[in-house]
Amino acid sequence: MTDLACGKKRLAESNMFFTNSAQQDAATRSKSSSLLTAQATHDFHSPILPGLPDDVAKDCLALVPRSDFPAMGRVCRPWRSFMQSKEFITVRRLAGLLEEWLYVLTMDGEGKGSHWEVLDCLGQKHRDLPPMPGPVKAGFGVVVLNGKLLVMGGYSMKDGTGIASGDVCQYDSCLNRWSKLADMNVARYDFACAEVNGMVYAVGGYGMDGESLSSAEVYNSDDNTWTFIESLRRPRWGCFACGFEGKLYVMGGRSSFTIGNSRFVDVYNPKRHTWDEMKNGCVMVTAHAVLGKKLFCMEWKNQRKLAIFNPEDNTWKMVPIPVTGSSRIGFRFGILGEKLLLFSLENDPGYHTLLYDPNATPGSEWQTSQIKPSGLCLCIVTIKA
User: Fold this and answer.
1) CB of 121 closer than 8 Å to CB of 336
2) I need a labelling partner for 242 at 20 to 30 A (CA). Which of 34, 251, 307, 344 fits?
3) Which residues, including other chains, have CB under 8 Å from residue 41's CB and lie 6 or more apart?
4) 3-class SS at 209?
5) How many CB atoms lie within 10 A of CB 69?
6) Coil/strand/helix, residue 354
7) For 287-326, how does the pLDDT look when each residue is reduced to its tens digit (9 = 90+)?
8) What is the pLDDT of residues 325-352, one digit of tens each?
9) Which residues pair with 269 in a beta bridge?
10) Rounded distance between C-alpha atoms, residue 181 and residue 179, angstroms
């Protein structure tokens, strides 16, 4: 379908078809394995929606509300394949139907574990994610790629010893399930990672024997492979990464070539396959997020101010954080609706999540939000689907 208005008129009809198809699928799953095999073969060669061209059928499926995606993915193989493709997100984007949801790794009660939970733009909780595959880890990296959540590396404890991992798993937010991807070339933890131009980079960190690393590698989702790129000029760990204008920026953390924390910024240019260097980064970063074309950071030594980096002129500015509901310090950053969310690291019932709008009129940039996870935030990402 090329006409969006016409596609929206079919919304009620496509939702009705979706409901009927889901009921039919439930009946099919109760049959014998031989019938399921035959049905799967039929599904593979079937049109997405009988009686409609596939391009029209894709527009219809894209109109289904996001909360129904997991059920929709269980209907048949053609639906599931379309939902797992990059095209599904593209069709929803062109239709103006992308929904932003927050995926929050939050601490369980008494700090005995953690789980991922999903919140919408109103703070309504939709579901808890299935447990991540493999052993419980710390020091892992998190990146969003093509509407999917990638969790990489980290370390786990075995017999009192930390073991670095190169494992990579992917959570499909549409189908609500985890899958295994290719391992990194180097097992690493406390490293920097980011998505730049549809590629995922992993840089530095600690290795298998606790050694500091300068190696860097890049992941291509098209062929599910990791490839080494030029290494950093110095080993670096405890750092973070972000992408601006097609380049990878690595900052924060420590380096074996500096005393204390490093202010150096390593900048990788994928077109030239080389690293450059700047000297005006921030140190001891406890939270960071990219919003628009700027980087927002919080440093340990100054946790009541936002440090905002503009890559166009490599400058920083400081913005005070108001005392609203609590004077506690320490935050995790989230992004929602082109605004910065600040979630407190202190379990204070009277505290409200802070919201910073960089596009608001001067004096009204700060507000409060009702969005609040069920426990303390360990990590937050935004996935549009």
Assistant:
1) yes
2) 344
3) none
4) coil
5) 19
6) strand
7) 999 999 999 999 988 878 999 999 999 999 999 998 765 5
8) 555 668 999 999 999 999 988 777 677 8
9) 274
10) 7
117 falls in which pLDDT band (50, 70, 90)?
very high
Q: Which of 70, 76, 132, 72 is nearest to 101 (CA)?
A: 70
pLDDT tens figures, 156-191: 998 888 899 999 999 999 999 999 999 999 999 999
3 state DSSP class of 104: strand
Contacts of 161-168 with C-beta under 8 Å, sequence gap 24+, read 162/210, 163/208, 164/188, 164/189, 164/206, 164/207, 164/208, 165/134, 165/137, 165/140, 165/189, 167/134, 168/219
- ∠290-293-295 over CA atoms, to 5°? 35
Identity at 273, one-letter amino acid code = H
Which tokens is 314 given?
Answer: 């490599």
CA dihedral 367, 373, 375, 376 (to 10 degrees): -50
- Cβ count near 6 (within 10 Å): 11
Return the closest-CA partner of residue 59 out of 24, 94, 85.
Answer: 94
DSSP 230-280: PPPSS-EES-EEEEETTEEEEESSEETTSSSB---EEEEETTTTEEEEES-
Q: Report the alpha-carbon distance of residue 92 to residue 114 in Å, rounded.
A: 32
The candidate with the shortest Cα–Cα distance to 141, out of 201, 182, 185, is 201
Where along the chain do its domains lie? 4-94, 106-126+285-376, 130-281
Q: How many residues does the chain have?
A: 385
| CATH code assigned to 130-281 | 2.120.10.80
End-to-end CA distance of the chain: 20
